[in-house]
Amino acid sequence: MTRRLLTSVALVAISAFSACSDSKPPPGSSASAFDPFATELSSVPPEPGSSPTALAVGDCFNSDQFAPGLSIDRRGVHVIACTDPHQHEVYAVERDPDPAGAPFPGDASMRAFADDVCLAAFEPAIGAGYVQSALDYATITPDATSWKDGDRSVICAVHDVDFAELLGSRLAAASASLASEGR
Fold it and tell me: Is the pLDDT of residue 179 over 50?
């Protein structure tokens, strides 16, 4: 009986872990310096003013730690110019409708809400359907601590499906503008 229970728990855990990722794992031969499976945060502190609550649509950033299917750790976000190689670009910032003082809904609930709003915003912002795109999305969501401080922002950011660094904007409006200028 105990062995069957342990086997069932192990299978559920493996299934849950496998189902958590929206991203495809990087190919073994990838030369990208972007390691979404990094387990340690950088010792470099975030730059002043680079807090995710200050992120806006069109901002590009790198993150110290990123795991597909999980929210990006807001403490490790570094805003950089989109003209420089970068990991992510913000394409939507949405607000959770829960009022101030509402209890934190939990990480799973926040991830589900973020998935819904980020998938809905993907095609209008990027100009291509999520399934057809060479981009995937990642989220930054409030955690229990920031929620208590009134943070309700859900940030949606695109990254390359193979985790290669991006160069320039991936937003549909920016891409259309560059195309009309002949770039």
Answer: no
